[in-house]
């Protein structure tokens, strides 16, 4: 059975976005079979077996501190004198049984189903997503009481885990901030036990502590959400305003007080003019979507372009591509920091790609009234631009 990713995303509907997102925690009780086929212990075992995973990508954590790698792995030197570390299963098991938490970062880059979930969450929430896996066996708190500098969505896949949530002591704290949050109150705001199938959303800055204290092991995924703040908007605006002579001009460090005041005033006028434009925020967010990092998906064996094979399937490897029409009616696609302009006839097939999913070349050709060869040529441009990938239709 495959995971019903749309059902997972649907749980984060308009009610969640309007009432909880960025504001308060929310517990989503389990729904039958919602996470079936997403990720399980056999998948974790396979990743540990078939990948050479080094800290901090793979680590064991106890009380917020990472165990040294030599505690559970041994160095192996190849005949070409490169060194990698081979896990020692017995030592790995021992440390986990004694209270360590296993953490595997960016598992969305290693596991197709989790990668698909991350991309759909990116499309829905319009922000970058990184998924980490956590496995623990004892009531020991692998990280102690702490807060994260990004929102998280937790998917409890197996077992159970107790969450003590204390709430924030500083609103919207940042990784690079002017101050640190005050310690949380001793008593939690709420205490929850997540069982298999449950989800939990927690905004950044909310203190919490987590432990597998229910007498069973625990496996969960944490989907971390990239923050986009007022600081990001101001940074973008400072770059965008380099088009203005005043912004590029040397500061009047040796000028008169009147000259210094006039310079500061002119800068303020430029910034205020930008903020008086009601579309400035939408312009910034559109740019963020258009420059969203594409995921790494090669298109082997098609190294010399996409052939005109009707059964080949194509998909975009960025979830936040933008499609619009220019003044001449041409279809303009922005994705991965690049922009392509195609004839108006290409708009229907591009719309299918932007909406997500894998589409056969013949399906795209019918949607646009084009020949399969023409679609293959268009798709080749997107593959060369590293925003699309092709493979055999499954």
TrEMBL record:
InterPro entries assigned: JmjC_dom, NO66-like
PROSITE patterns linked: JMJC
Source organism, top-level taxon: Bacteria
GO molecular function per UniProt: metal ion binding
Name of the protein this chain belongs to: Cupin superfamily protein
Organism: Streptomyces prasinopilosus
Keywords: Iron, Metal-binding
Cofactor: Fe(2+)
Segments forming domain JmjC: 100-242
């Amino acid at each position: 059975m495959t995971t019903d990713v749309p059902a997972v995303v649907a749980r984060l509907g308009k009610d969640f976005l309007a009432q909880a997102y960025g504001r308060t925690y929310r517990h989503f009780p389990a729904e039958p079979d919602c996470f079936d086929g997403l990720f399980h212990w056999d998948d974790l075992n396979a990743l540990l077996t078939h990948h050479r995973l080094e800290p901090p990508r793979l680590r064991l954590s106890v009380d917020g501190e990472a165990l040294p790698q030599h505690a559970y792995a041994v160095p192996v030197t190849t005949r070409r004198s490169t060194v990698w570390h081979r896990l020692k299963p017995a030592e790995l098991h021992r440390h986990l049984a004694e209270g360590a938490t296993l953490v595997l970062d960016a598992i969305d880059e290693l596991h197709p189903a989790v990668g698909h979930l991350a991309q759909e969450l990116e499309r829905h929430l319009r922000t970058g997503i990184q998924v980490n896996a956590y496995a623990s066996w004892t009531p020991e708190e692998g990280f102690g009481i702490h807060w994260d500098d990004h929102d998280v969505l937790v998917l409890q896949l197996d077992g159970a885990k107790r969450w003590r949530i204390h709430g924030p002591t500083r609103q919207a704290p940042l990784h690079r901030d002017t101050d640190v949050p005050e310690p949380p109150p001793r008593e939690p705001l709420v205490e929850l036990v997540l069982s298999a199938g449950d989800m939990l959303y927690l905004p950044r800055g909310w203190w919490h502590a987590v432990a597998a204290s229910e007498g069973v092991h625990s496996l969960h995924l944490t989907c971390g959400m990239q923050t986009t703040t007022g600081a990001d908007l101001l940074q973008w605006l400072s770059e965008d305003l380099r088009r203005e002579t005043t912004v590029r001009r040397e500061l009047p460090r040796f000028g008169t007080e009147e000259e210094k005041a006039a310079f500061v005033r002119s800068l303020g006028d430029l910034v205020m003019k930008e903020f008086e434009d009601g579309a400035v925020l939408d312009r910034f967010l559109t740019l963020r979507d258009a420059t969203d990092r594409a995921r790494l998906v090669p298109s082997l064996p098609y190294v010399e372009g996409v052939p005109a094979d009707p059964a080949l399937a194509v998909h975009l490897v960025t979830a936040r591509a933008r499609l619009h029409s220019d003044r001449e009616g041409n279809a303009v696609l922005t994705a991965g920091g690049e922009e392509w302009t195609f004839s108006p006839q290409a708009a229907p097939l591009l719309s299918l790609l932007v909406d997500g999913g894998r589409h056969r070349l013949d399906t795209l050709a019918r949607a646009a009234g084009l020949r399969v060869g023409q679609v293959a040529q268009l798709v080749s441009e997107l593959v060369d631009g590293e925003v699309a990938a092709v493979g055999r239709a499954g």
